[in-house]
Amino acid sequence: MQSEPETVCNVAISFDRCKITSVTCSCGNKDIFYCAHVVALSLYRIRKPDQVKLHLPISETLFQMNRDQLQKFVQYLITVHHTEVLPTAQKLADEILSQNSEINQVHGAPDPTAGASIDDENCWHLDEEQVQEQVKLFLSQGGYHGSGKQLNLLFAKVREMLKMRDSNGARMLTLITEQFMADPRLSLWRQQGTTMTDKYRQLWDELGALWMCIVLNPHCKLEQKASWLKQLKKWNSVDVCPWEDGNHGNELPNLTNALPQGANANQ
Question: Are the beta carbons of 213 and 159 closer than 8 angstroms?
Fold first, then answer.
């Protein structure tokens, strides 16, 4: 806006196999979704890839330097960021000069610019802390001030992720469920022997429906389903975990008898 002073933001985006795996921005805006500056930089990289200079991994660049160049590089780096990196630089220097230190027992050194191994898991960046904070905030408002609408928007985002086969869908729903389980009203209602409100029950029903979408996904691996079953059983064993209507047991429903049996059954 013309009335606002122009500000410059420092943005860093890490990629791994065509996925944004981490983002940082100096604007300080905290949200579940990327800030406008990260989006702008991403679009710039997509539309003008030739104008974004590519660099070798820093380990390769350092390998090409001689001793004097390496010393100049380190000293200039410390000079520019001395208040931030000087304590770490001194600590590392002491460890490197010590023959028996742990750092000297490992061959080579880490390089965050070299990228992940092809066998490493990669997924889109998700600010887990912000997901937890926002869900906690919406729940604390007790369904008022549009908080129920905001929670339904988060549920819609999970559905969108599942539709795109984004692994963050299950991660995000796990974070949301953990905050629902930690809601202090569950303990209060259990102590008072009262039932939860209809609006709150609708949110829990949506939560259950999304978990059904996840565990019934035919594209998921068996180890993923096993981990989700373990997590669901863990939540189910908590005293304050709400009961499904008509099911007052402490065990998960046994669906085995409801499935078709015999040789003609479709696995």
Answer: yes
